[in-house]
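User: quick one, sequence for these tokens?
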């Protein structure tokens, strides 16, 4: 997996084209016409997110929104440092999202990383796992702050993540 950030600049602005671009590995997508200042801002954001892509992926502990995920002990702790019961699939999903802060991951990418198989477009198991994860984290499903939905694209972490 390459760590080179990819920003697509294209005249193709249909939802299907954007989804295809993200599913092929793009980090951002900017349709023409665009303001040059927006292009510069997006380039800076993509570079910021990819500055040290392995740092978060190699981290043992993630801190986010008062929570702590400890990879070594396979545990989740709340703000009071109390261990919270979390299922294996939800733990892995949270771990994947936290290790890629600021990156939108499609259902297909998440399915592959979770199960090692291709995504069936009619399979909603990722959505069910996200729903369970939101409930566990106390994230309001109607307007989630931690696990955010990027409609037509996938899911991302919506809060700052500290990787140790």
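Assistant:
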């Amino acid at each position: 997996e390459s760590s080179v950030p990819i920003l697509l600049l294209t005249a193709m602005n249909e939802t299907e084209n954007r989804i295809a671009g993200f599913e092929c590995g793009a980090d951002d997508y900017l349709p023409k016409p665009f303001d040059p200042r927006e292009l510069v801002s997006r380039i800076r954001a993509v570079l910021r997110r990819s500055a040290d892509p392995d740092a978060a992926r190699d981290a043992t502990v993630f801190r986010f929104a008062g929570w702590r995920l400890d990879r070594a002990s396979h545990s989740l702790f709340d703000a009071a440092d109390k261990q919270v019961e979390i299922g294996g699939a939800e733990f892995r999903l949270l771990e994947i999202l936290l290790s890629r802060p600021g990156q939108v991951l499609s259902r297909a990418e998440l399915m592959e990383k979770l199960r090692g198989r291709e995504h069936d477009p009619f399979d909603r198991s990722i959505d069910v796992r996200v729903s369970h994860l939101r409930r566990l984290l106390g994230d309001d499903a109607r307007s989630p702050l931690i696990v955010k939905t990027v409609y037509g694209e996938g899911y991302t972490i919506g809060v700052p993540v500290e990787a140790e």
